[in-house]
Structures are given as C-alpha cells and as structure tokens.
Write a structure and sequence with these properties.
6 helices, 302 residues, 9-stranded mixed β-sheet, alpha+beta
C-alpha cells in the first residue's frame, strides 16, 4: 500500500459552529485578543487514530477536561459531541490512520480584564492522515541526548499550549542529530523526554518516573501502569538518577503517538543491552492488548 502522507485538515470551533481553515488562515476571524493568544491560556492533546479508532480517547478527554477546569476555560463541546464530529470527518475523508491534535484556547474575558475567567473558548482539531501501511510500532528504536541544561520547568498536570520549553529542547536535540532530548533536573533525576514518558528495567524490575517528579502524566503510561498491576508485574513509580543509567538494561519512551518505542542509546551515557529484547516483547504485547481493547470499545476493525 502507498506510504505517501496525505494533507492535513484543520477545523476551528468558533461561536457554536465549525469552520474549515486553509493553510493561509484566511477563512475565519480568530479572536486574537483572547487569553489563549495573549497569555498562553490553553491546553492540547495529541493522539493516534489507528484503524479508525482514536486510541485512549477517554484518557485524553479526561486530561483535557481537567486542564479546562484548572485553567477556568469553558469547554465548548462535550466528549460525545466532539467524538461524533471526529468520526464523521474520518469517514467522510476516508481516513483510518492519522495523527489527531485537539487544541483548546481561552477566549476573551467579557469584562475586558485578563484577571477574570473567560466566558468563551476556541477549539481546534487537526487531522493529519498517515500512510495506511504505517505500523503501530516504530520500525527502529530512537537515540536521545541529554538536554543542554538541567530541567527546571514545573510541568502542570496537562499539556499546556505554552509548550516552548519542550519544543526548544527537542529542536536542540534534532540539531545535534538525535531523535529526542532526555530531561533531567538539577539533582540528576531523570524525568521524561521532550514528548514522552519513560519506562526502564533495572535489577529485574520495570520502573517509570515517580509521580512526585515534575512530569506531565501521560495517557499511555497511565494505561500501562494499570495493566502491569493486573498482569502481576507492576511498573514501579520511582526515581532514576543519571549515574544509575549504566545499571539499566532497557529504556523505552511511551506516548500516545509512538506507543512504546525502545531507546537504543543515550549520548555518552548508555547503550541498549541485549537482555532488553524479552522485555521489549513484553511491553509491546501489553500495548497491543490495550490497543485491541480500544478497537473493541469503539467497534473499530481489529
């Protein structure tokens, strides 16, 4: 099948209706005076559409809803209505594989003061169709480098549209020839990558970053944590320091777009051990099981 990527579709929900937006953003009037634009008040979610199924939809919506509550932004749509629109667009455009991004911006405050909560919000949906033959799992692992500076950003419990620290860390890693940046705080505690949570194997146990650390709680790692407990081999939430990397046999990144992908090397710090192959198969099987549950939940073709 063709591996050619199709064009993206962008839609904005303003004043109770959807508007398609062209690449020059000329088709609608956008309230640039809204708090989402002037003060970065907003959140977003990125997820994978696989075989027509928006994977881990309920988890992503729960995180977006939590962000809206914390930021005091009124959600213009509920989960059911937005999901119905998405299914309609995917069917109309004959798309089964896609990267889906949902963005929520705060609108302007009617009082004119940015100290007051906004009464309106703007929502956008971007659907970038992917090749029909694109695997659920990356064909190869990724290489990462340490971020150029210790990570001091205090991550919220959602994905903020003010995402500059992560974007800049990823860009710097790309310029140096790596796929992603590994973030560690001033004490050398390994946190996450610029776009994914971490899983590692150390002393025969699977671990992931402690919830006390400043990381964005991912939807995939959350599902894997619960599933690992059900399987009787729980992923432990704990700390991992840079000087302990050599004690690690396997390292993986987990997010809603990649799924679970092995790290093959951390620049000048660590390389993947052969003993991680069995654990890689285990994590892959867990994730495949979770995806199958999602396909069944949304009545998508397995």
């Amino acid at each position: 099948m063709s591996s050619q990527r199709k064009k993206s579709a962008y839609r904005l929900f303003i004043n109770g209706c959807w508007s398609a937006v062209d690449s020059r953003m000329q088709s609608v009037e956008i309230p640039v005076g809204g708090l989402g634009f002037t003060h970065g008040l907003g959140a977003f979610e990125t997820l994978r559409v696989y075989r027509g199924c928006p994977l881990f939809w309920d988890c992503h919506w729960a995180r977006l809803n939590s962000a809206a509550d914390e930021l005091e932004i009124p959600l213009p749509l509920d989960s059911g209505r937005l999901l119905a629109y998405l299914r309609m667009w995917l069917k109309a455009d004959d798309i089964r594989e896609a990267r889906l991004k949902i963005i929520l911006w705060a609108g302007p405050s009617m009082s004119g003061s940015y100290w007051d909560p906004p009464e309106t919000a703007l929502m956008a949906v971007e659907i970038v169709s992917l090749a029909e033959d694109l695997s659920l799992f990356p064909a190869t692992g990724v290489s990462v480098c340490l971020a150029e500076h210790p990570w001091t950003y205090r991550a919220p419990n959602y994905k903020p549209i003010a995402y500059a620290p992560y974007l800049l860390a990823r860009r710097a890693a790309k310029r140096r020839g790596f796929d992603d940046a590994l973030l560690a705080d001033e004490q050398g505690t390994v946190l996450e990558s610029s776009c994914a949570n971490l899983i590692w194997e150390k002393d025969g146990r699977l671990g992931t970053t402690s919830p006390d650390a400043t990381v964005i709680p991912g939807t995939v790692i959350g599902a894997l944590l619960e599933h690992s407990r059900q399987e009787g081999r729980p992923i432990e939430e704990t700390d991992l320091h840079l000087e302990q990397l050599q004690e690690v046999s396997g390292l993986w990144l987990a997010n809603a777009y990649w799924g679970v992908v092995p790290v093959i090397a951390v620049e000048n710090k660590w390389t993947q051990k052969e003993t991680s192959a069995q654990l890689n198969d285990l994590l892959k099987s867990w994730y495949e099981g979770l995806v199958l549950q999602q396909l069944n939940l949304f009545n998508c073709q397995a």
